[in-house]
Amino acid sequence: MAPLSPDRVPLVAGVLSAVSLAIVFAAAGGYVPSSVLPTAPEAVLAAIPTVNVLISAVAIVTIATGWRAIRRGRVRTHRRAMGSAVGLFVTFLTLYLYRLVVTGGAASFAGPDEIFRFVYLPVLIGHVGLAIVCIPLLYYTLGLAVSHDVRGLRETAHAKVGRVAASLWMISFSLGIVVYLLGRVVYG
């Protein structure tokens, strides 16, 4: 028996998406008090953005590897790569939200106002917006993967939704790297 009934995938994906997004918005909105989390040394907090950029770069390669593997019929490699990409995303988000809560908010942009309004902010909005859109797509695609065997999975929307999710996910990670470079390297 599959760990998840196929007819429950949309419901489970919806509930997990709602819970995940509630956690993200609560942390980003300042509704999670920093006192509920352990404190880390300043050096650790300062390193998180760089670690997250490295995670993003590795995730892009991992997603591309998984995509290429499935196109070549290498299901096991695809599963490992996509599972790793999900793990990287969870690690990225955990570190990001931890730093956000502990430091009391996102870092400010130190560059010129014109760059902030016309470059940095649109890239940041695109990065965050795509990340939000990816969450339900990822849960749905993962739900289909765990609720079907390989043959049965071919008759679902897994491949179609997975292509969209993987594309948006890679774009989101790429935009996150641009946000980092603009905010921490070019104008840091």
From TrEMBL:
Alphabetically ordered keywords of this record: Membrane, Transmembrane, Transmembrane helix
Statement: the UniProt record of this protein carries the keyword Signal: no
Protein's UniProt keywords contain Disulfide bond: no
TM helices/strands, residue ranges: 12-32, 44-69, 81-98, 118-140, 161-182
InterPro entries per record: DUF420
Endpoints of the signal sequence: none
Designated name of the protein: DUF420 domain-containing protein
